[in-house]
Design a protein that fits this description.
Layout lengths: L3 H12 L4 H7 L5 H7 L2 H31 L1 H4 L3 H33 L1
Length: 113
């Protein structure tokens, strides 16, 4: 049973997560370039808020994975995986913060019209 656990854990982790940026971009139906060209600041603010939310969601997912890897370290015999997840949490939160700042800037621009 102990030998099967790491493989199940690995399958679970990879089945429930994916690469950070492609997942966030995959749901993009909004044409950012057109909105920028048209000066559609309100729509851009909404889009950037959505991106921030997606990155926060990714951060939460990677935080759960970090906890799972920490709990299973005796099976993996390495500290790399929890550190990797912690770095992804940090980067995801940084991206969310940057997108939130973009949204705020676009909202200010929309009020000038």
């Amino acid at each position: 049973m102990k030998k099967a656990f790491p493989y199940f854990l690995l399958f679970f982790v990879f089945a429930t997560s994916g690469p950070l940026a492609p997942l966030v971009r995959a749901e993009q139906k909004f044409d950012v370039e057109k909105a920028i060209a048209a000066g559609d600041h309100k729509s851009l603010a909404e889009y950037y808020r959505g991106q921030a939310a997606a990155y926060r969601q990714q951060a939460q997912k990677h935080k759960k994975m970090e906890v799972t890897y920490v709990e299973a370290q005796e099976y993996w015999g390495t500290t790399y995986l929890p550190k990797h997840c912690a770095e992804l949490v940090k980067k995801s939160n940084e991206m969310a913060e940057l997108y939130e700042k973009l949204a705020q800037a676009e909202e200010k621009l929309s009020m000038k019209k």
